[in-house]
Design goal:
It is a single chain. With 211 residues, the chain is an alpha+beta fold. It folds into two domains: 132 residues, Muramoyl-pentapeptide Carboxypeptidase, domain 2, CATH 3.30.1380; 55 residues, no CATH class. The strands form two sheets. It has a four-stranded antiparallel beta sheet with strand order 4-5-7-6. A three-stranded mixed beta sheet has the order 2-1-3. A hairpin with a 4-residue loop joins β1 and β2. The mean pLDDT is 92.
Amino acid sequence: MQLYVYDSLLGGFSRFSLHRAAPLPYTDGAPVLLHDFLGSTTTETVWTDRELLSAFGALAAQFGAPISVCGGFRRVLPGRSLCASPRCAGLMLDIGAGLCAPERERLRRLAVQSGLFETVLPEYVAPTWVGLQKRVAPVCAPGCPFPELRPGNSNSCVFALQDALAVHGFPPDCGLTGRFCAATERALCAFCRARGTPYAGIVDAGIWRAL
């Protein structure tokens, strides 16, 4: 299968052809396999950000023991709210589900203290795991985990946009590329016209919520 990892240093994506049992790149030896990242998702194309993978690898080194990952990616599906799931952009990990409660709390404290993640879910939200979110750009509105997007942007959130448009019946002619190209904008304009959603050259919270 194909894993696309956005690298801000390169300003583009690295593509990896991997078996589902292959280790994730950029985790500095943390034993995380691709099928753990996928969770229950069945797909042949997935995407994430190098900053998320590197942050997880650094956290695993601080923890000093293996950390299970029970899901970090979720495809957009009909009827599912894209706006509620940063996993659609490959920017969130659920980890540590197999740990005992004291070790899981130690992991949660380390994640908070590390400053590597913008969101670490509190125990009352994630009582049997630790939820981590990496934010690669400022969110466009409270309650929306995605940034504003403009034509020309390239990041894992553009993958989520293209995927959601396809699910709603407006697939960009370019396919899933992670690049906000002219074909992506044409598909977006068609979607917005059909839904009566305003579009003025920026993918904002209103569009994300419509998706």
